[in-house]
Amino acid sequence: MDAESIRAAYRRYARIYDRVFGVLLGAGRNATVAWLNRRGGLRILEVGVGTGLSLSDYRRDNRVVGIDLSTDMLRVAKERVEREGLTHVDGLLEMDAGRLAFADGSFDVVVAMYVMTVVPDPAGTMAELERVCKPGGDIVIVNHFAAPRPGIRRMVEEWLAPLSKKLGWRPDFTLDTLLDGSRLKVESIETVPPFGLFSLLHCRRAAA
């Protein structure tokens, strides 16, 4: 995966994303925002904000900044913010998740939903998520991870792998690949619908 392949894929998806993926991936997104909404007064970075499907669901006493690599997806998100009057959204910025233009420790929580199989450099992106999260802060990831053991699902994932550039995501991406070299502490991981194909991963940055 490279940046231009990602932009091209989501240029195709931008106007249909909400109707297709909004429904398919809604359970994981809702579970993540519900977890975040247990607390208020947070500064939250949403990496891969896409069309902004989750933005209206955040507590209004949390401040949200969203970034995405796709100009086309961000255009839809900005239209949503203006249409719905989402004053708790502080900004929507075009940015590479592997090179975040924020100071160290800028956010209480960093959330990445359905993003890590898309970014060109997952390890570099994880390091950036940790860097911009405050010491002791939370990093929450929702993602598809390849089946850990051989079987039909793993076979399908490996069969689809060569199509990654067309799909816009990596079907054979593993949890070990994501966490390799990371200093984050895994607090919990649970499967979310549909069909248990996605996982909600909660990590914590070490306190200073």
UniProtKB/TrEMBL annotation:
Say if the entry is tagged with keyword Lipoprotein. Answer: no
Keyword vocabulary terms for this entry: Methyltransferase, Transferase
Q: Which domain of life, per UniProt?
A: Bacteria
All residue ranges annotated as the Methyltransferase type domain in the record: 45-141
Q: Which Pfam families match?
A: Methyltransf_11
Query: CDD domains from the entry?
Result: AdoMet_MTases (cd02440)
Annotated GO molecular function terms are: S-adenosylmethionine-dependent methyltransferase activity
Q: Name one GO biological process term.
A: methylation
PANTHER family recorded: METHYLTRANSFERASE LIKE 7A, METHYLTRANSFERASE LIKE 7B
Q: What is this protein called?
A: SAM-dependent methyltransferase
What is the scientific name of the source organism? Azospirillum thermophilum
